[in-house]
From TrEMBL:
SMART domains: Elp3 (SM00729). Keywords: Iron, Iron-sulfur, Lyase, Metal-binding. This is DNA repair photolyase. It comes from the Bacteria. NCBIfam families: rSAM_PA0069. Residues 64-310 form the Radical SAM core domain. It comes from Kordia periserrulae. InterPro entries: Elp3/MiaA/NifB-like_rSAM (IPR006638), MJ0683-like (IPR040086), rSAM (IPR007197), rSAM_sf (IPR058240).
Length: 357
C-alpha cells in the first residue's frame, strides 16, 4: 500500500509480496484516488474467517531451540496483529501475504478436536507435551465464539494428556474450570506473553490483544488457582521495551508467576520489510535508532537464522539484555521453577477412562 494513511486497528500497514507466488498484488495511488473521487471504499479492513479441514493437527517441532517437541494450532493467521510476530511468514505457505493478510484472513480448523482425539488414542502415540499456539494464538478473538481451543482442552482432560498453552489473551480465563481440573494432575502449564507495562506501547505493538491490565490479572488469577505460569517477556525490542525488563519481572513475580523467559526480536523473512514500514510510519523519530540496534544484535542484519543464536542475539546490546534477565531471575524468581508435566497418566486413559490393565 503506497499511501501514508495508517490502517487502523492493525499491526502491519501493508501486504508484502508472497515469495512463493509469481504474481504480486499492488494497491496503486491512482486507484486510491479513483476510489476517493467516486466515494468508494478501497479497503474495508474487515477480518475474514475461512474454514479449512486439515488431515493432521499435531506438528512435530524440529527446531532445536524453541523448547517444544509438538505443537497444535487451531487457527492459522492471527487477528492480534503483533507487528513483530515470527508466525507471519507461515501465512505465505497458504498463499497469503505475511502482512495485512496474516491479520485479516484467518484460517479456522473446525475439526481440530476430532483430529487430536484420533491421534492421541493411537497405540503408536508416545506421550509428549503438546503446546497450543506454537505458531498462532489459540485464544485470538474468534475463539470466544468458536470454542475450538476449549474443545481441545476437553480432549486433553478426558485422556489425561499433558498440554501447554502460549497466549496473550485473557480469554483463557473462560476455561479456568478445565485448567483447574488439568492442574490437579499436573497436566497443564501456561505461558502468558507480556511485552510491556505500558498500554501505549501495547497498542502500537499488539493492536488487537488484551490490555496489559487484563493480562496481569490473568497471571494473578491463574497462579491463585494453582496453575503454573511462565511469563514470556518476548520479544525484547531495543529502545522500545528493553528498559522494562526489571519492572516487568518484579510485577509478574508479585502476581504469582512461576518463571520468566525472553527472546530478542528477530525480523526474519518478510517481517523485516513489514516491521520497517510499520516503525517508519508509527515511530518515525526513533525508527533508524531501533532498526540499527536490532541489526547490532544480529551481526549487522535484521535477522539471524542460526539455531541457538537467532533468539538470543549477539553483541553489546544483546549481552546487556541477557544480563538484565539474569539479574531479574536472581532478584525475583530465585528458587522458582516451572514443574515438569505429568507424562504417566495418559497411557492408562487412552480409551477415555482409567484402565487397570
Amino acid at each position: 500500500m503506497e499511501n501514508s494513511t495508517k490502517v487502523k486497528g492493525r499491526g502491519a500497514q501493508k501486504n508484502v509480496h508472497n515469495r512463493f507466488l509469481e504474481d504480486a498484488h499492488e494497491v496503486r495511488s491512482d486507484f486510491l484516488e479513483y476510489c476517493r473521487k467516486e466515494g468508494e471504499i478501497a479497503d474495508t479492513n474487515k477480518t475474514t474467517y475461512i474454514n479449512v479441514f486439515p488431515k493432521t493437527i499435531i506438528n512435530k517441532v524440529t527446531s532445536p531451540d524453541v523448547g517444544m517437541e509438538y505443537s497444535l494450532n487451531p487457527y492459522q493467521g492471527c487477528e492480534h496483529g503483533c507487528i513483530y510476530c515470527y508466525a507471519r511468514n507461515s501465512h505465505e505457505y497458504w498463499g497469503y501475504s505475511a502482512g495485512l493478510d496474516f491479520e485479516r484472513n484467518i484460517l479456522v480448523k473446525q475439526n481440530a478436536a476430532t483430529l487430536l482425539e484420533e491421534k492421541i488414542k493411537k497405540k503408536s502415540w508416545k506421550t509428549q507435551t503438546i503446546v497450543l499456539s506454537g505458531n498462532t494464538d489459540c485464544y485470538q478473538p474468534v475463539e470466544k465464539e468458536l470454542e475450538i481451543t476449549r474443545n481441545l482442552l476437553k480432549v486433553f482432560l478426558k485422556y489425561k494428556h499433558p498440554v501447554a498453552i502460549i497466549t496473550k489473551n485473557a480469554l483463557i480465563l473462560r476455561d479456568l474450570d478445565l485448567l483447574k481440573e488439568l492442574a490437579k494432575d499436573n497436566l497443564i502449564g501456561v505461558n502468558i506473553s507480556i511485552t510491556s507495562l505500558s498500554e501505549e506501547t501495547r497498542r502500537v505493538l499488539e493492536p488487537r490483544t488484551t490490555t496489559i491490565k487484563k493480562r496481569l490479572e490473568t497471571v494473578k488469577t491463574l497462579a491463585e488457582n494453582g496453575i503454573p505460569v511462565n511469563v514470556m517477556l518476548a520479544p525484547i525490542i531495543p529502545s522500545i521495551n528493553s528498559h522494562e525488563i526489571l519492572p516487568l519481572a518484579k510485577k509478574v513475580s508479585e502476581l504469582g508467576a512461576t518463571s520468566i523467559a525472553f527472546t530478542i526480536v528477530r525480523l526474519n523473512g518478510a517481517i523485516g520489510e513489514i516491521f520497517t514500514d510499520w516503525i517508519r510510519k508509527t515511530m518515525p523519530d526513533k525508527a533508524d535508532k531501533v532498526l540499527h540496534q536490532i541489526e547490532s544484535c544480529h551481526g549487522g542484519t535484521l535477522n539471524d537464522s542460526r539455531y541457538g543464536h537467532r533468539m538470543r542475539g549477539e553483541g553489546k546490546i544483546a549481552e546487556q539484555i541477557r544480563n538484565l534477565m539474569q539479574l531479574a531471575r536472581h532478584k525475583y524468581f530465585k528458587n522458582k521453577k516451572m514443574p515438569r508435566l505429568n507424562m504417566e497418566l495418559h497411557e492408562q486413559h487412552k480409551n477415555g477412562q482409567y484402565s487397570l490393565f
